[in-house]
Design goal:
The structure is a single chain. With 400 residues, the protein is of the alpha+beta class. Helices cover 15% and strands 32% of the residues. The chain is built from seven helices and 26 strands. The strands form five sheets. Strands 1-8-9-10-11-18-17-16-15 form a nine-stranded antiparallel beta sheet, with no helix packed on it. Strands 2-5-6-7-14-13-12 form a seven-stranded antiparallel beta sheet, with no helix packed on it. A six-stranded mixed beta sheet has the order 19-24-23-20-25-26, covered by helices on one side. Strand 17 and strand 18 form a beta hairpin.
């Protein structure tokens, strides 16, 4: 056992920036194949398959690149596009064939099919008619320009899943509804004529207490679920939505966090700094109370790192309670070089772990900063909060 007063003032620390970004691939995947959409994971048809001219009956499907979380490939599904009644329609589906969005994009003109690219995990781009109409679905940011649908033009309206009514209150052209644990937004040129359907948010991940709703303006209409909103003015559709992979990750991390309290703290993995080359484990720290700090320097408010506001009170806690048995550990998910720069810039005096996201994943970190208190036996007693614990919590842990 290493006592807090034996660890030495040489220790420096700071919270961790969790690497929740997915591993990227730089080679684009471009969809130009013909034939029926393949099921996720299906093999690409041979190049000798008979081509279908661009027009009614034309179809293509492009597999989206998998995410890597936490360590294994995380399937992302595919983008499908086809021509129906002379209109180009596109949709995104998960690896389990669940619909994420569907758009009646534009009237077919010319012989050039749309260009579909998946250049990296979390990034999907569809462009048609030299970019005049497009869909961008990248890391939850959704952008789409679709062709307006005049009243005297026929087009294949979208049927809402699980709905018998056409959607939208009287006079409304927009609707938000619930289906299989998700909130969807549907919009179109008039009530009951839907030309775009987008999955917004998962019911279990809404944090602000607002489940869903719509707001109608003279030109722009909004559909929202929780903190996510899509705005539509008839051709431009823009806003944010929760992607399937992000929802699964968030739900998995929530389950991890629910099991942490009262359990032994997960393993600390990474490169230790300001410890004189010593690698710390929970076994080494038994007998001490521990304040574990995760931070992310890229999170900023008005250009100032959000974690900076916590540094002065954190240093005060260190000065006051270090001699009484409180060890502060920072977990910082950047490179070792960046972690060393952070320590030097802020004159940190407690240990810092440069983490490659392993430790953050084990603690189910989703928001940063996050703080945890570990008791003298190495069990998690308080944590995953965005604010420092009260001194009463720390003194209770120290037996004062």
């Amino acid at each position: 056992m290493v006592r807090a007063d034996q660890l030495g003032r040489r220790f420096c620390g700071r919270r961790c920036l969790t690497l929740i970004a997915a591993v990227c691939c730089t080679l684009p995947v471009v969809g130009v194949a013909n034939g029926p959409p393949a099921a996720p994971g299906a093999k690409t048809p041979p190049a000798s398959a008979p081509a279908v001219k661009f027009g009614d009956g034309w179809r293509t499907a492009v597999a989206l690149l998998p995410h890597a979380w936490p360590k294994d490939d995380f399937p992302s599904g595919e983008c499908r596009a086809w021509v129906e009644q002379g209109w180009l329609i596109a949709e995104r589906r998960t690896d389990q064939n669940e619909l994420e969005w569907k758009i009646v994009l534009a009237k077919v003109a010319g012989k050039e099919p749309p260009r579909i690219e998946a250049p990296a995990p979390g990034r999907l781009r569809l462009s048609y008619r030299d970019g005049r109409y497009f869909i961008r679905d990248e890391f939850g940011e959704f952008r789409c320009v679709r062709q307006p649908k005049p009243a005297d033009v026929a087009w294949p309206a979208i049927t809402l899943p699980g709905r018998t009514n056409p959607g939208g209150a009287a006079g409304h052209k927009i609707d938000v509804f619930h289906e299989k644990g998700w909130y969807f937004m549907a919009a179109g040129p008039k009530r009951g004529a839907v030309d775009c359907l987008v999955r917004l948010n998962h019911q279990d991940l809404i944090t602000n207490g607002t489940l869903a709703g719509v707001s109608i303006g003279p030109a722009v209409q909004r559909g929202h679920s929780g903190e996510l909103t899509l705005m539509d003015d008839g051709d431009l559709l823009v806003g944010e939505r929760l992607e399937e992979w992000a929802a699964r990750r968030a739900l998995a991390r929530r389950e991890i966090r629910a099991k942490l309290r009262g359990s032994p703290a997960p393993e600390l993995a990474g490169t230790w700094l300001n410890t004189g080359g010593e690698r710390l484990t929970w076994n080494d720290l038994k007998g001490n109370a521990v304040l574990l700090v995760f931070c992310r320097s890229s999170s900023a408010i008005n250009g100032v790192p959000a974690f900076n506001q916590h540094l002065p009170p954190l240093k005060q806690l260190y000065e006051k309670y270090y001699p009484k048995g409180l060890v502060i550990l920072g977990v910082y998910a950047h490179t070792v070089k960046e972690a060393e720069r952070f320590i030097e810039e802020h004159h940190i005096e407690f240990p810092v772990l440069s983490d490659a996201s392993d430790t953050a994943d084990r603690f189910g970190i989703e928001e940063q900063p996050s703080f945890f208190l570990i008791d003298r036996q190495g069990k998690v007693v308080w944590g995953n909060l965005a604010t420092l614990p009260a001194t009463a919590e720390i003194e209770k842990l120290l037996g004062e």
